[in-house]
Structures are given as C-alpha cells and as structure tokens.
Design goal:
Elements: E1 3-7, H1 8-22, E2 26-30, H2 46-50, E3 55-57, H3 62-74, E4 78-82, H4 93-100, H5 103-106, E5 116-121, H6 136-140, E6 146-148, H7 153-165, E7 170-175, E8 182-186, E9 198-201, E10 206-210, H8 214-226, E11 232-236, E12 239-241, H9 245-255, E13 258-265, H10 270-281, E14 291-295, H11 306-309, H12 313-324
Parallel strand pairs: 2-3, 2-4, 4-5, 5-7, 6-7, 10-11, 10-13, 13-14
Antiparallel strand pairs: 1-8, 6-12, 9-11
C-alpha cells in the first residue's frame, strides 16, 4: 500500500528527496538546509544522502541565494531555494520580481526559469519579529510568478513535486504552524492539478474559502456550525496565483454566500481580489455581500498577542453568522 500517515514536514522532506533522486539537475539551496537539515528539518538527511553539491548550505544572503538560483536555472538546473523565514524574503524581493518573474517575458518566451522558492510563512509559533509574516499577496500581484500553499500532507507532497517539474517560477508558501499536522498521503496517486482548488468539505448554506494554515480553522468552524444546524462548504484554494475562480463560483452558485479567510491582513489581501471577482461573477446568485476574515492592518505583534491577531474559530463563526443573517 502506498497510503501512509505523515506530517506536512515529513511529506515535504519525502517529496524533495524524490525530486533529487529523480532528476540530477534538481538542487536545494538555502541557509542551514544541509548539515542542520533546515530550522524546521524539512531538508533533514538530504545533504547526507545526496552530497554538498546537490544540497547546498549558502551564506546568509537571500538576494544572493535567489540570484544564484536564477543563474543556475539559466544553465539548465532546477533549483529549490529555501528562505528560512517569511520575513527574510525581502532582501531577495528585487531578484524575485525584477528578474525571476520577468525573464520569460523579457526573452519573448525563449528563456524559462524553473525555480521554486520555498517560504515557511504565517504565525502561531511564538516567534520573534520578522518570523511570522504572510506576504503572499505581494507575490501574487506580480505577473510571471505562480504562488501556491498546501494545507495538508498529501498536497504538500504532490504540490512540491509539481512545482519542481514546472518551467515557471513558483513561490511555495509552507504553513509553518501546520508542519506537524498529520494526514493521509498516497505516494502513488496524484490528487489533481497544481493550481486547481479542492472542496475540503461539502455544504449547502455558505462557502468558506481559505488556503494554507487557515483551512484547518475553516474546517473546525464548519464542524462547529453543523452543531447549530448550518451546512458549511469549505474550499481549499491551494493556489493564490492563478486562482481557481471557477471552483469558487461553482460553490457559491450552490450556497449563495461566501466568506474568504486568510492569516494575512484583510486590507489589500488576497481575499479582496476573490471578493471582487466573485461579486462580478455571481452577483445574481449572492444573497449576502462577500465577507472577509483576516489579520489586522498592523505589524505582526509580539508572541504574547498573536492569538488576538490571528483569525480563529470565533472570528470565522462571527462572519458566518453575519452572512447568514442577511
């Protein structure tokens, strides 16, 4: 049997191992990814098994890491780059948005840059400043980048496989507070296309759309709402660029209500684009305005306050109640 119970962290490790074993052009680069195995141990044991030429410990220089990966991709390699924490990506932002994202268009399609940038993101681990950011909207806004985030072990394994095989640059956001959540993984059955949303729970009264770390919260909210006689559908977006609007539309045409949930601040967040598009597409189906739940428009707070900042069960259920009250 190929079915196993595995944590998201272990699924990512196994996926990267398979990628290295399958294609000698796949490289892993980043701070402490080799001997240490990464601060979250996602790359644990890979340098030992594949050597320092395939799993490369880099200097603490994110711009240099991504810039080097771009050069390697130009030479035919498929680098998988780790940004150690979400808040560390900004020194590399210029390389990502002005080089990595633009090269395909700049060369009129002649040059491809198959680079995966792995970013552990989001809060909930009690970390210090710059370790709990959710910058996905900054990258989803940039043409030429594809942005994804798994919420479970199966998606973590298969989406990483698909990202490494992609000829387009992929920003791969990993929900760090979910690394140790376990789920079923079938290593022989590909679940679906990389940028296709999935229905994590069916329902008839309202649709919750989320991705990454908030999918679990939405599933818990749907279970709690069921005890009150409410039937909630949960759509796991999986991809923030491109967005599978067709899947959301199909769900909303059935439930007629939509609440979008993400950890990132609501202001200018991914939920704003989803709300606008679905309002355009489903105007005559909606029985309530599209509501959004997310973080506040403030710098990420100290660890003692992050439970107040992060959207939890109560805030999601409050939005559900407000929508159903229309």
């Amino acid at each position: 049997m190929a079915m196993q119970k595995m944590s998201i962290a272990k699924a990512l490790n196994e996926s990267l191992r398979k990628a290295l074993d399958t294609d000698p052009k796949v490289l892993i680069m980043g701070e402490d990814v080799g001997k240490l195995g990464g601060v979250f141990r996602i790359t644990d044991g890979l340098q030992k098994d594949f050597g320092e030429g395939r799993v490369i410990d880099t200097p603490l220089a994110e711009s240099g890491i991504v810039g080097t990966a771009i050069g390697l991709a130009l030479r035919g390699y498929r680098p998988v780059v780790e940004i150690q924490f979400d808040g560390f990506v900004f020194p590399a932002y210029d390389q990502i948005v002005t080089q990595l994202a633009k090269m395909h268009a700049r060369s009129l399609g002649k040059i491809k840059l198959p680079v995966v940038v792995r970013i552990p993101y989001g809060g909930g681990i009690g970390a210090v400043e710059h370790h709990s950011e959710s910058p996905e909207a900054l990258f989803a806004h940039v043409a030429g980048l594809k942005v994804v985030s798994p919420s479970n072990a199966s998606d973590a394994y298969w989406m990483m496989q698909q990202a490494v095989l992609s000829d387009d640059p992929i920003i791969f956001f990993e929900p760090k507070r979910r690394y140790w959540d376990k789920g079923e993984l079938d290593t022989e059955s590909i679940p679906g296309q990389l940028h296709r949303a999935s229905v994590a729970r069916t329902g008839t009264d309202l649709t919750l759309v989320a991705y990454g770390p908030m999918v679990k919260v939405c599933l818990e909210a749907a279970a709690a709402a069921q005890d009150e006689g409410k039937s909630i559908e949960v759509v796991d977006l999986r991809s923030m660029s491109p967005i599978d609007f067709d899947a959301i539309q199909t769900s909303v045409e059935k439930t007629r209500r939509l609440v979008v949930v993400h950890e990132a601040p609501v202001f200018y967040g991914s939920g704003a684009e989803i709300a606008a598009r679905i309002t355009e597409r489903c105007f005559y189906h909606l029985e309530a305005p599209v509501l959004r739940v997310g973080g506040y428009h403030v710098p990420y707070p100290p660890a003692r306050l992050e439970d107040e900042y992060l959207p939890g069960l109560d805030r999601v259920l409050d939005a559900v109640d407000r929508s159903l009250a229309y």
